[in-house]
Amino acid sequence: MPENKDSISRPRKFLFRILDGIEWIGNKLPSPLLLFAILALIVIVISGIFSGVSVTNPTTSEVVEVKNLLSVSGLEYIFSSAVDNFIGFAPLGAVLVTMLGIGLAEQTGLIHSTLRGVVFSVPNRLLTAALVFAGVMSSLAVNAGYVVLPPLGAVLFLGLGRHPLAGLAAAFAGVSGGFGANLALTSTDAILQELTAEAAQTIDPAYAETITVTMNYFFAAASVLLITFIGTIVTDKIVGPRLGKYSGGAQEDLEKLTSQEKRGMRFAGIGFIVTFAVMVYLSLGPLRGDGAYIDSPFFNALVFVIFILFFVPGLIYGIVSKEIRNDKDLTTLLGKTMASMSGYIALAFTAGQFIAYFRETNLGTVIAFNGAEFLQDTGFDGINLILTFMGITMIVNFFIGSSSAKWTILAPVFVPIMMNLNYSPEFTTLLYRISDSVTNMITPLLLYFPVIIAFAQRYDKKVGIGTLIAMMIPYSIAFLAGWLVLLLIWVLLGIPVGPGAPIYY
Questions:
Q1: What is the pTM of this model?
Q2: How far apart are CA 182 and CA 145, in angstroms?
Q3: Which of 199, 209, 297, 481 has its CA 20 to 30 A from that of 86?
Q4: What is the DSSP string of 247-291?
């Protein structure tokens, strides 16, 4: 339950006023749909102003030039690519497919019943930590956590009588802020390892061959506990109290499960177990592939797997509870789910155009290389160098959302610079992962930022960019502070950041 306003300390009241100001300013911006349309137009204009400006990749000697979208060829691109930019907007298909499965489970009442079962069986004090931890670990499923956990976190908190947006924020913080942490290896580790090793070859080819996918594992595993702890504290002590009591709609019914609901959950549970067993078999057998597991056909189809894991139990529960009596009922329930996503679909059109234009013009690449050149010209070393590099990475993250895309640009520049200053490629990659993670949740250019806004607007139609940024800034600052302390301890003790991965080169 939210704290009494009189019990909130003066420092927190002051913090809340600052966050309220950020929210007010941010929400004065146009709606996300219109904002992305305006940003797309701004990119077009800027591309015309800076047309011909170029940078040279010091590693490959490749010249990257700003493309002018106001030219004849640029206008041809704008008109011919509009549909492809919309369809190719990365989160669109993943969100809609996943929400078909989650939506059916929600419409039939399975999620509602499961929620009530959880509320009566799990201590309330552990739920926030469990939600943040699940968000951190969700990077095993690449970006699926952005689609699955925030809406479930909101529903869970609503059922507990807490503000649903606090649950959404906790899950979003875990997924985005914890993207650089995990107890297991993920596809991100493999991608970054390849890019880091390739960049290190320009200085020391022999050393580059020793860089493995586990290069950041020790630090990443320790970070799981750190992010879970900080995320829990920020949610319960800052975000939740600031949001206060939710008055946007009826609270979830917390009455104990009826016999019919228990029967439906029992059959749905059996269906889930059988489906999960089938998925495990497919992952280890027919869909295992010949290469690494994280590159297998099964792993690349995780969005569809998640859809199935929600759809089958939802369907079974609906049949047992009589919510689904025939195929028409099923179609109606799925239609309701897609109708609830109509605003996001419209937003995806303008967001897709903006992302595509920004990529096509090469503006992000030019900004990144200029940032790297600035770092090299500072002459910094030690802590000043580390903090400057992290600051540049955080700034670049506001322009390029994809983690792998940024490192593709930055690694060939920063890894050699840091090696020449006696920092190992593995340590440089770690600094990058921290910097990337802490600003993911506050950059509107994160591909899944509009998705989170769409989820939040289910509970408050007035939620805008300012609302979400104001909710997430405390997490961003706290994660950065916690990681810097952990990093300082790591450096002072000289602990390897991963197996055979020293701090110094």
A1: 0.72
A2: 13
A3: 297
A4: -SSPPPP-PPPPHHHHHHHHHHHHHHHHHHHHHHHHHHTTT--SS
